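Title: Comparing notes on inverse folding

I've been comparing how different people in this forum approach sequence design from structure. To keep things fair, I'm posting one structure and asking everyone to reply with a full sequence. Here's the target:
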């Protein structure tokens, strides 16, 4: 197994996770905004 490819895959997965987390936060803020306004 190529370590370089492995690292690249891990970075891609981490990037996707970060995107999902930020999307969840934005979605939650959006929901709170809709509920309170």
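Reply #1:
Here's my take.
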């Amino acid at each position: 197994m190529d370590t370089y490819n492995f690292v690249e895959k891990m970075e891609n997965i981490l990037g996707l996770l970060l995107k999902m987390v930020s999307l969840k936060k934005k979605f939650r803020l959006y929901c709170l905004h809709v509920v309170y306004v």
